[in-house]
Amino acid sequence: MIRILDLGINNLGSLTRAFSSLGESPGVFDVEVLSKPAMIGRKDLLVLPGTGSFAAGMERIRSLGFEKYLKDEASGGTKILGICLGMQLLGLDSEESPGTTGLGIVPAR
Q1: With 29 labelled, which of 13, 22, 51, 96 sits at a CA distance of 20 to 30 A?
Q2: pLDDT per residue over 49-65, tens digit each?
């Protein structure tokens, strides 16, 4: 199961099609788009995509309730793939948005 987080600042259609086409035959991976945290259920990978500024991305994560969810999943061993802005948001902070803290999952700036 691959879960893609919908922050409203990403291209979900392209990602969903890309992940659905992986494997020996298309459709081998179940792909689910999450617009709110879902702690239950099996997942092999969480995908955090995004475009835009660091501050806007963190504001969306927090307003949608994904901050605790992502930290809990990471501490529980769930693999998380950050794409573009999503990778930056996994870090501690960003020079782009001074004063805005990131998720702190990856010890990088």
Answers
A1: 51
A2: 989 999 999 999 999 99
